[in-house]
Amino acid sequence: MAVTFIGVRHHSPACARLVRDTIARLRPAYVLVEGPADVNGRLDELLLGHAPPIAIYSFYRDGERVHSSWSPFCDYSPEWTALNAGRAAGAELRFIDLPAWHPAFAERGNRYADAERRYADATERLCREFAVDNTDVLWDHLFEIDADHLPARLDAYFDLVRGEAEPGPDDSAREAYMAAWVRAAHADADDRPVVVVTGGFHKPALEALARTGGTGWPEVPAPGADAMGGSFLVPYSFRRLDAFTGYQSGMPSPEYYQRLWEDGPDGAAAALTERVVTRLRERRQVVSTADLIAARTLTEGLTRLRGHRSPARTDLLDGLVSALVGEDLDQRLPWTARGPLAPGAHPAVAEMVAALSGDRVGRLHPGTPAPPLVHDAAAELERLGLAAGGRIAVKLTTARGLERSRALHRLRVLGIPGVARESGPATGADPVLEEVWHLDPSDPGGARLAALIEAGAYGPTLGDAAAAALDERTAAAGDDMERLAESLFDAALCGCAGQSGRIAASLAAGVAGASDLGALGRALDVVLGLWRHDHVLGTARSPLFGTVIEECTQRILWLAEGIRGGPAPADRARLRALAAARDALLHAAGTLRVDRDAALGVARRVAAAPDVPPDLRGAGFGLARALGDTADPARAVRGAAGPRVFGDWLAGLFALARQEVLDPGGTVLAVLDEMVGALTDEDFLIALPALRQAFEYFPPRERETIAERLLARRGLRGSARSLLRAPRDPLVIAEARALEERVDRALDAAGLTGGRP
């Protein structure tokens, strides 16, 4: 008997019916399916009786490459139908494609990503000839609504698109491998039929390749000895399948195609019209009986006009939008193109898309094997009293509290949904010693289970998995100091000491080439805090952290001294970097090799340079004062008196040495009061935005202290706190006063003010 090749579009109900009916009719010896061959030993697990959508999640990791991918199935996936129909017919089942970790899939996160980008020219021409918007509409028009002569039409379609496309080396490797399985099954079938179900793009090549070559069963590639890889079943969802939410492949609107599979096109149109109306009414959108009649009438008219026997998906959607949306739309209708729903879509249109997308979530059979991480996470949550979920307060000063914190942080680092920290230390220097978490125990839609299964690729326990995830983040960060610093802090929170050392080493290696002051400052702030204070997290006085502190401080000062430029808004990132260098110079000088005298020289030169931006000059002066310089601050403030630079210079000063204003015996506050009071309304309006930004460096209590002293300078009594709550925006008041002044000048110039008192 000959081999029967069925080329399909992934997630097509029409193709799924063809596969089901062909296998039932032929009752083949083998059913061969495009899918990961390394899962063949676990096909019984795949057919336990799950409720789709589900997916095979595959992962791979070695010293150079990390890869993960999904092979999703829903009820109407031809591959899923082939497996179930083949099992019912008594056939031997085999997946025949390369494993998902193979380099042939290096650029693909989804095995069933359609090949349409490779034959775009052919499908674009067909879309023009049939006057449709895109390949989804074309496919419905040609195959889903009218199934007459489906095998011949599919063959013609895939022969056309394959004939005009050039397969890449990845396709060629996969097709050669799949053809070897076909030849072996044919040789072993004893003249019984063999059915091969693959993407239609591959069918013409497989028919040719299967005619010649060896007939032995091909070997299944295995990861190398230094690599880690495997596959597990995970629950999937229509949201993850849907092209409107970014799915790589297949069709949009999975709920529509589910109804099409179950009830046919007329039943799908009726059910989903009701679903759209229900959603709109739940959101208080008025949908009358007349609107429903109009929608049905318009849908039927579009169906006949487009030559369809029954409503297609876009007939239904176009009829609904014509009847239910009365105003002009600012955007093209989303089903006229492929890809995610654009922001700003009309609410009714968004509800229509959501209704046809659906919210189904798959369920795995209770007997499905899970990776060890799933069981370890459940055991840890139970052991630590976290399984019940809810709002959880964790004290970091107790051994049990620290254990609970680390377990929760490991779940957070692994991206497990339903685990959120509401408060806690933001850096190693943060004095907060309690965390508050919210843990959702309900796991709506099985999202947590799916995420834990997928995270199982990182390791068998929460600690191992979090450590591997942090290693991956570190590698991806490259020389990005800020991302490395974030990973380092997370490693400390997770209790991953080995990762902390490796990340700190990466930071130390990247400092010499770093040029982003803000990123260096963030890194120094994190490392210094962990080095100084973190007895709780176990990183205090780490020698490696000390090396990072020394090198970051030197690099920040070197970069700061090289900056030149005219007046510009204060750069908060570089001011934070200089503040971090100040803290290192103040708190680590006795232990580490940080030269305060050399830093003081840099600070003085930066403060005195006329071609340095004003915020940096102010920061240089503030740094010098913090390091013990005795220069007169009042004189320095007066030197920065121009309204276009005053506020930015003060921002630099306050970022590094705001105590200069708070010092009861100092003169800075008096000078500031004098200078601000002397500004004209116009100059004040110019200076005000930067002044407001500068004073944001003072927390509310310190602002209140400044207000109290200003009242005392004027001999006034009153509430200092009330001065901080202006009845109107100060900028609006200043603009109004400046406008009044301009009007007065204009009246004076026109000689119209002579009669005023």
TrEMBL record:
This is ChaN family lipoprotein. It comes from Actinomadura physcomitrii.
